[in-house]
Structures are given as structure tokens and as C-alpha cells.
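Batch manifest line 555
LIGAND: iron/sulfur cluster
JOB: complex structure
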Amino acid sequence: MTIAERDISSSGFEELALLSLSSGDYSCLPELMVRLMNRFADQYVSVSMPSMRVGTLTPEIMDQIKRVRKTGFTVAPEAGTDRLREVINKGISEADLLDTCRNAFAMGWKLIKLYFMIGLPTETGEDVEAIADLARKARNEAGPLAGRVQINVSVGTFVPKPHTPFQWERQLSLAESRERINRLKSILPRKGFKLKWHDPDQSFLEGVFSRGDRRLSTLIEQAWRSGVRLDGWSEHYRLENWQRAAEACDMDLDMYLQARNPEKPLPWDHLDCGVEKDFLVREYHNGLNRVYTPDCRTQGCQKCGLCDFKTIYPVVHSADRPPAVKAGHPSIEKTRAGNQDRVFSCRVHYTRLGDSRFFGHLEILQLVFRALTRAGVHVLYSQGFNPSPRVSFSPALSVGVESECEYFDLELPRPMTNQAEVAARLNMELPPGMRVTGIGIKPEREPEALLVEYTVTPVNALSDKQRESIARFLAGEHHFVERVRKNRKKQLDIRPLVHSLETEDSALTISLISMQGKAGINPKDILREVVGLSEEEVLLARIKKNRVAIFPANA
Ligand code: SF4
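JOB STATUS: finished
ARTIFACT:
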């Protein structure tokens, strides 16, 4: 709770994720969820968890998750059949999974992600096909709403790991992984389902390094020398590069994916993780024979060798009494019910200068939302299952364009009386280049037309030809350019939209008329269509929006 408190107030994030390999195994999870939601629901901070084991997502936990907004819902059946789940000692049945899905749909979730592995020990074609069957059954749990819900099936190739019972098992070859994924692609219906898979090429290399030995250090060096970099990013990852490096080192990578002989030493046998090898052998055979090993936290020690029961022993926490669920903040409940008595609006003017010009519009939204939270500015939230702050922004500015005159409008539960202080607090929280320049009244109606002035500094001085082109444009009454909207070409006369276009030394000052609800132009269009700059010159030109005024001035 202390960490959550500190991190939310210092970051302004609206989502808190409980991350671990298996958050659902934490015995105090229901209590923690209630405490977190009691503390943060008023601030619209939602709580999410990564993939959960089926059975740990109880209706009580789901109830807590949805108190603010329904965050992603991922469960991990891991295998398509009960038989294969018994092999991996999953301890959950198809009925458990379907119960969880039914509860989630009943509570309003529309999307459930199911995570599976292919290539688990003893897997057959039937197990692979059962993944699609299980996804279909899960969707049917939505009952009459089944047509409106979606199941995302996520599949990864099983990579045997050292110090686990399946450390002796083989991993699927590249061809087998691809073939099983293709099989799933062909049998999973398109409507209502989406299949995502982990790239088998990446799983292959993970498998090599997962159970590798010290010879792989030579491979890493060779790959690096041949130019391999940033492989964690899929756009940079090329398995061929590693295969070429392996050839250069005279190594057979496929060998690392093969089954290992339990009688022979393993490359990591000299490393002691506390769990005894005899236990792993026993568990390996138990798995293959589908003998269930219970959870030692609740059903007694299974003798894995980890605990000495003096300094290392299982500690299972449980709260004496779960805390009571606190009702939401009255103002939130009112807003949700659409019953907010009064809404007070204000307009915050800010700059976007320097490096902040490279933020995209969505990033600006997030930066402002978080700055508002950190600065302690309480705004109203939208209604519905996915509440968001009632903040609206001036039209999106192109990435790379600076501005002295952006704004966002806030809807507040009470009037803002300390504008200067709020501006100062926001300026402490906004990144360099973004600076609040004033807070004022939001106009009742937006003007029909605006005059927007930009200055543009191209990288190269304008040539005589470009200056002539500008003069010709200004002397004319029309200048038609082609626009493609929804795959249809249209002619747009841009001349009436340019109020003035002046050149001074190497800079241009452009005033454009922007009319509500009508097609407009931006300074980049002028640079391209009128001045005749190349695409690269357009991208490199420094553009700044200086001021915005109502047009015509006496309107
Ligand atoms: S109680 Fe300790 S030694 Fe026994 S199975 Fe659990 S972790 Fe292993």
C-alpha cells in the first residue's frame, strides 16, 4: 500500500498493475484488492493484473477490478485439454475455466484473453485442436451475448527451463512450431476470435539459450562481431544472423532443443537453486503419469528440498478479516449517474516548444492527464465502464510543429478560484517546453473561423524559383490541389484559405484561415504545394504556431 501510494502520487498514472509471475498465488490478494480499490477508486485509479491462473480470479476479485474500469482480463489455461493440464500439474479443469469466463462475461467484460502453450510434453494434434474448441466454449459462456464478445487466443511455444521438472524434455523444432500455429490459424473461427502467437523464430533462440552451455558465449561474441544488435526488438531480430554465426562457430543450434538424458549431467548442475534434482526427476515422472502434486502452502510439504524449516520455510499470510468495501466518493457516484448538479469549465492555455514538439497527440493527452493528477487538480470523469477525465484538447498539432498557443478545456466539480497557483503547480509537473501561460474562461461557442499564424524556417534559404512560385500563388485567385479522402480524389482550392504569406530573409510567415467543419490546410501543405519543397525539406523545416485569432477580426 505504501509503494502504491507513493508511486501513484508521484507519477499520476491511472492504472496500477500487480506484476509477478503468478499474482494470483498471493494469499492476501482479495484483501489487497479491496484495500487498493478503497484507497484509489476515488481517483479513478484502476488495478490490473497480468495473466492469472484460472481459479484465482474469483468473482470477489473481478468485482474489485471492475470498480473503476475493466482492465484487461487474461487467464492462462496453458493447455487445451484436461489431460495435458494434468501433465503440467496445472490443477484446473475445463469447468473451472468456463466458470471464470461465465462470471467475467456476466460482470460485463467483452474481451477475454486466453494464454496457451504449444509443444508441452506429450502434446498431440488433439491437444492443439482442443485449444480452438476451448476458445469456442469460452465464448459460448457469454450466452445470448456471445455474438458481441471476443476471445483473443495467445499462443507461445513451450521452452523447457533449467531447474524445472521438464528440463530434460525436447522443444518443438521450428517447423513443428510453425505447423501447429498454422493448424490453429486454420481452425479458429475468424468472427469473435483473434489468434496471436509468439514468433517461433524467437522461441527457437530462447530455447537455445535457456538450456545452453558455456560454448554459447562464443556464439554471442560471433553474432555481435557480425553486427547483431538490439535483438529484443522484433524488427531487428533475424534468426538467420544467429544461424550464420553458429555456422561460423561450427555449432549445431538444433542440438540444444533436443531431449536430455536424465542419467547424464546437465550444464547447470553445478548451480544450486535449492530444489533437489531427485525431486525434479520425481516430478518429471509424476507429470508424464498425470499424478497431481498438491500445493505445499496448503496441503503439506512435498519435499522439494528448498526449505530447511529453520531459516527457510513457507510463510502464508492471510488477513484476519477482509476489509469492508468502501462506497465510492459521492461526487464520483453522482457523475456516474449523470447527475452532476453543476459543471464548471475553464480553458488552460499552454505552449509546446522545443523538444516537446515531438510528442504525438495521444502522448500529450497522457502527459496532461498525469500532470493534472500530480498537481492535485480534480476534474470530472466521464460515465460508463471506462471513465476518463473530462478534458478536451485543441485540434491535434502535427508532430514536429511547435506552438505558443495550444489549449485544453477542463470540466470541474467546483469553480477554479486560484488560477495562478494551479498554473504554477501544473508547470512544476509538465515536461520542458510545455508551459501553462494562462487559465481563463472557456468560450460558450467556438468561433466559426480562425486565423492561425505560423512562422516557418526552412533548412535552406529560398531559391528565386521558390520565391516566384509564392508570388504567382499570391497573385492568383485559385490554386487547386488534389486531396484523397476515403479513397476518393477531390480538388481543394487552397488559395482562399491563405490569408497572407510573407517572406523575410529565409523565413516565411503564413496566416491560414481555418473554418469549423470544413477541409483545411496546414503549413506543410503550403511548403509542399506552393513553395515546392521536397518531402525531406518539409520534414526538416522548423514550424511554429504563433497565434490564433477570431476571423474576421470583427466577428
Ligand atoms: S514446504 Fe518447502 S520444502 Fe516442502 S515442498 Fe514446499 S517449498 Fe519445498
